[in-house]
Each structure stands twice: as C-alpha cells, then as structure tokens.
Amino acid sequence: MAAFTAEVAAERWPLRETFTISRGGRNTAEVVTVTLSDLAGISGRGECAPYRRYGETVAGVTETITAAAAELPAAQPWDALQEILPPGAARNALDCALWDWRARREGRPVWQLAGLAKPRPLLSAFTLSLKEPEAMAEAAARARGFPILKLKLGAADPAACVLAVKKAAPAATLIADANEAWRADTVTEILRDLAALGVAMVEQPLPAGDDQALAAIAKPRPVAIAADESFHTAADAGAIAAVYDIANIKLDKTGGLTAALAAAAAIRRQGMKIMVGCMPATSLSIAPAHLLTAGAAWVDLDAPLLLAEDRPGAMRWDGGTVQPPAAGFWGA
C-alpha cells in the first residue's frame, strides 16, 4: 500500500489583465496543485506552475505528480523525492506538499523545521507588463504605491519604456527583465542607456547559452545582471558566477524548497547575490518561496497581485510589502 494518497488538480486563475513578456502574453495563471495525505489523514499542499519555456505542460506535470506520489515512502519521503524526480515544476509541488505535511504532522512551522529565520513582512517588486511606452507609463502611475517596479522589456527600444515609467513614477526603484530578448552585439549599449536612467538591475538580457558574451562587460557593471533562465539549481552556480552578479531562485526551477535552499547556499559560496522570484501563480506558490528571502538582494513575489482573485486565506499585501502567510495556510 502506498504511504500517501494524492489529489492532483489542474487550475486556471484569470489575471487582472493580459500579462506580456518578450516571449508573448497570457490571460491566466495555469497551475497544478497536489494534496498529499498519509494513512493517518494528515495532509499537505503544494502548487507549481508548469512552464513551456522549459518543456513543461499542465497535462504532463499532472501525470508526473500522480505517478511520483505513488512512489513516495513513509520514511524520509522528501529525500526520496529528490531521486524520484528531476528539478522542475512537478517536483516543486510535491516537495512543498511534503514540507507542509511535515509541519502539520510535527506541529512546528516549516521555517523552524528547515532552520530558517522566522518569516517577516518584506518588500517585493511589482511587475509591469511589456507594452508601448505610453501604456507602461500609465501602468506605472497606477502602481505609485509600490516602491520597486520591475519592467518587462523587449528588444524594441527598451530605454524608451524605462524613461516613460521613470517620468510616471519618479520615486520608484526600477529593475528590469528582458527574458532573453536582447542580442550580444547590442547588450552593452542597452545596459549603458538603462544605467543612465537609474535602472538598478536587469534580469536575463541574453538567451540562456549566450551568457559568455556578458563576460566582456567588466565588473563592477553600470547595472547589475541577474541570471534567470540561465540558472536553475545549485549545480549551475559555478558556471554563472563569472558572468552574472545575481541569481534568481524560483522553486519551479529548482524543484521545490529543499533544492532551493541548496541553490541559495551555492550562490552565496560563489559570492553572488540572491533574488527570489516566482512564476504566475497563487499564494500557495508564494508561501514557501517567502521563506527564502532572508538576505536576498531582490524579492519578486508579486504573482498573486496579478490575479483577478487569489485563494481563500491568501497572503496579505500592504502596498509593496507582503506579509508572511497566516497560520494554517501553508507550512504552519
């Protein structure tokens, strides 16, 4: 008999408006949730967001989670999971469900079980979708209550978009995300332009695989550069350290909180800074990611704010500050 039963569900959560990056737009956050229950009836929940950029589909991830859950042993299942599944969305959902299950079984919050600092309110960036400069300026004006704005940028005149946002929200700290849209022969000039406009950091300016072109930009750079698509797990830390300043940890890339903790340790050993990010998802995805943020240079966990509606008991926001999850929601 299997040690756990698993309820797996694919869910679609409408967004407030179309969310666009350099690779295209979307109107919904598509997630897969799993509820693991042991023979005593103690359950834990986890959520993941399959991402086509990494070859994942909702149907494939749902099938993988269902099959893997049946293999989990009663003893140390979170360790076995690392062997059963590779990094990715499916393992993330199961790993987070196991942490939640363990917290409920032992009556202690996940942050204590993992030896982490107690979660506290934290400042997160708020993301502006890629649009024409005028439309991005309008979005920035509506988001003036957020101290940090993250701009999705494309290949077409990114400096114009930044300038428009800067005029509309002059007090905001600006960071940017190109999602692999720029070219090696133009990236230096673009970064120089963005530095002149006060942009503090840019994520993944070049396609993953073209990273070495960034080595020609001497450190310290006019704008810090963060690896996103180029960084998935602890095993990648050494390879990116020479060309990036920051690594963006996302649980759907690492394959859960367990591997994310290892990734954070590896990044720090390389002398790099940490960013904690997320995929379009609900607060059930954000709650475990919140535990990684102690000491992070940048936090980008605003996905629930892009939804038309979040889960019952969802994490609470006060402007750009996100509160820790309420007791009973996840991990506590």
Your description of this structure?
With 332 residues, the protein is an alpha/beta fold. Helix content is 31%, strand content 23%. An 8-stranded parallel beta sheet has the order 5-6-7-8-9-10-11-12. Strands 1-2-3 form a 3-stranded antiparallel beta sheet. The longest helix is centred in the N-terminal third of the chain and has 18 residues.
Furnish the topology, listing elements before pairings.
Layout: E1 4-21, E2 24-38, E3 43-48, H1 58-69, H2 77-84, H3 89-106, H4 110-113, E4 122-123, E5 126-128, H5 133-142, E6 148-152, H6 158-168, E7 173-177, H7 187-196, E8 201-203, E9 224-227, H8 237-240, E10 246-249, H9 251-254, H10 257-269, E11 273-276, H11 283-290, E12 298-299, E13 317-318, E14 321-322
Parallel strand pairs: 5-6, 6-7, 7-8, 8-9, 9-10, 10-11, 11-12
Antiparallel strand pairs: 1-2, 2-3, 4-14, 13-14
Helix pairs in contact: 1-3, 2-3, 5-6
The N- to C-terminal Cα distance equals: 28 Å
Beta content comes to 15-25%
Strand order of the largest sheet: 5-6-7-8-9-10-11-12
Q: Which CATH class of the largest domain is shown?
A: Alpha Beta
The fold-level CATH name of the largest domain is TIM Barrel
Number of contiguous helices: 11
Helix content: 25-40%
Number of strands: 14
